[in-house]
Amino acid sequence: MAKPFTLTQLRYFSVVAELENMTAAAERLLVTQSTLSTAIAQLESSLSTQLFVRLHTRGLRLTPSGRHLAQDIKVLLEHADSLYESARGLAAGLVGELKVGVFAPLAPFRLPAILQTFEVQHPGVEVSFLEADLATLQSALLDGQCDVALMYGLGLGRGFTYKVLDRVPPHVLVHAAHPAAARPNRSIALKDLDGEPSVVLDLPHSREYYEQLYALAGVVPNVRHRFAGYETVRSFVAKGHGYAMLNQRLNNDMTYSGGKVVVLALTDNFPPIEVMLVRPEGVQPTRRTLAFEETCRRVYGSAGPLTESIE
Fold first, then answer.
1. Alpha-carbon distance 287 to 174, whole Å?
2. Suppose 95 and one of 71, 124, 177, 204 were both cysteines; which one would form an S-S bond, judging by CB atoms 3.0 to 4.6 Å apart?
3. 3-state class of 286 per DSSP?
């Protein structure tokens, strides 16, 4: 039995779901607001469910049913585009939008190379990024604001599918004049810094990870400064305001402040941070998403499908 809704209605719904504003969606779709409202009302009637909650002052908000439809509809619309291209004998290249979440401290490292490689292979895909902390990225994935996220696995809750791309051990940064900077083996135990002022990367889930490391070492940190910016932490260390624990390493020791930092390996047996590709469990990925994941695996030197999950 044919379903009593149209592809146009689904496309209209997809844009309204993204913007959660009827006026803005009508402007993007180049249709009148009344046309759009009628299409959404007909779709809700056909599905016998409410897709949006109408808010007098804040536009629209997806209902649980609407959120599920918004997540599932991307693959259907992509297949419809592929069918159109096939019927017209067009090239089978990927087209459309891809929304990628990225953990802010990770963004400067490999993401530019990932995008450069991806754009060469898939020039028809328009990629946009949501740069945020880990907690925000989890919410964005579940709400359909991004298709996939490049992030740490710290604090990852239930309902996600993930693939580990890399495991990055923690290290210590000290300023160039710190006594430990002259050590020939460039290594140190966290206990050796007990009592010294520290500069902390203070982001949701990251802070808990570093607190765990201090606890494992039996050290009570003397936190002098807390910052949400990775480079801010490095700059304060370079000027002698304390040491810091971080995971991602730069290829040079210069900071924005003009000072230098020295990287010391930790001799403690600390757990590494896992760099992951994460997406919502149970949501069929689009071909664009799968292609982006494959590019990430190649850049990170990883391979294999997204098979691991948290249920």
1. 45
2. 124
3. coil
Q: Is 175 helix (H, G, I), strand (E, B) or coil?
A: strand
Domains in the chain, ordered, with CATH? Answer: 7-73 (1.10.10.10), 93-159+275-310 (3.40.190.10), 170-271 (3.40.190.10)
CB 257 within 8 A of CB 238: yes
pTM of the model: 0.71
> What mean pLDDT comes out for the span 205-227?
95
Q: What confidence tens digit (pLDDT) does each residue in 64-102 have?
A: 888 888 877 776 776 666 555 544 444 457 888 899 999
pLDDT above 70 covers what percent of the chain?
A: 90
Facing residues of 171 across strands? Answer: 246, 265
Contact 281, 159 (CB under 8 A): yes
Report in angstroms the alpha-carbon separations of 4 from 15, 34, 115, 234, 272.
20, 20, 40, 58, 52
Asked whether residue 260 carries a pLDDT value surpassing 60, the answer given is yes
Residues 230/248, Cβ–Cβ less than 8 Å: yes
